[in-house]
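Reopening: Nitrogen fixation protein NifU still failing for me.
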Amino acid sequence: MSFNNLDQLYRSVIMDHYKKPRNKGSLDENSVTIDMNNPTCGDRIHLTLKLNGEIVEDARFDGEGCSISMSSASMMTEAIKGKDINEALNYADVFSKMMLGEDIDEDIIDELGDVAALQGVAKFPARIKCATLAWKAMEKGVKEEPK
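Support: Ran it again with your exact input. Result attached.
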């Protein structure tokens, strides 16, 4: 597949998650709730996580922002649902490295599913905070949740 075709495919995946977000909404009051914003561009996210022991049983988000931040939130919730907390945190670490343009093992990229579509964001430093907002919220939520 040529670079232009791959770039177009990635843009299509991003726009699909933006226009038809997965896991949009919130969970009940027994969930971990995290509110974060990106003051430089106005993106904001309200993330709720249902943790069952060490498992991220469910994840939902609400908020407003650019296509990058909202599609990243949609992709992130899809990627971490059903995973244990350490796996979710590992995904966040991999995503952060991907945003910094570091080489990532293709097998791990494949595990992340649609998240791979955000690789091109690394070329636009001003957009990296948009892409990482939901991931930072998830990290904060699982790290601060009392065990």
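The chain has five helices and three strands. If you still see a failure, please send the error message rather than a screenshot.
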